[in-house]
Amino acid sequence: MATYTLPEGFSDFDMFAFGSALLVGGLLGFFLNFISILAFLRVKELRNPSNFFVFNLALADISLNINGLVAAYSSFLRYWPFGPEGCQIHGFQGMVSILAAISFLGAIAWDRYHQYCTRQKLFWTTAVTMSTIIWALAIFWAALPLPAIGWGVFDFEPMRTCCTLDYTKGDRDYITYMLTITLLYLLVPAVTMQSSYSTIYAYFKKTHKFKFNTSLPIKVLFFCWGPYVVMCMYACIENVKLVSPKLRMVLPVLAKTSPIFHALLYSYGNEFYRGGIWQYLTGQKAGDTTDKKK
Question: Taking CA atoms, which of 11, 56, 78, 199 is between 20 and 30 Å from 133?
Fold first, then answer.
């Protein structure tokens, strides 16, 4: 059995508790998004350009779930078993998942704005092109901290059982990279979502037909990622090592719950998509049960 040294500020119970949180969140998010992905692939009625964005969001989220499950496994071992190369791969894969997921949140908001407010139809060519660009840009920006380029650095989080962008350095490379990522992958999507959903809300209010809660998407974004980004921004001006290691672990664990919220909000919270999931699971269209009761 491999020996290990507990990281500073953590006990065996802490390692088990954080590992358990990562395991439960990862498994729940994986299950919800896996069903969403299979439903899109198996139910013909679901396969339209708008739902293609939801499908890609589920792909990005299930990738983040896998990232969290790897971290859970390492937490139970009490050490990182995959070596320095594995740390770089883990950090890169997690960053791609995060950047792609947040980008698809903005794409979904943009598409919903056109669905409800401009009545412009989304075509497959547009949806596929946008999705390809989103994935390509996510891979590009996530690759920059890899050793071959070195704009930012991937390194261990405080428990040393998972890897992410190293916010403890606070050097010029980290600051410039973090500010750029925050602008492109938090502020731009947040502004897109806020402007889109506020316009949709005005339309719903005018027509007195509220199809969904327009305030939830932006709230979920900032609830999951806001605290973690604040810590990363704080690291640009102060020594973040002065912050408790446990608190520095709570924030990324909270962020890794985002796939659960996304699945509940965009797949299971969408009446049409939920009907497709029901059809996939039961073989029965959602409207069939209603017809039989009449």
Answer: 199
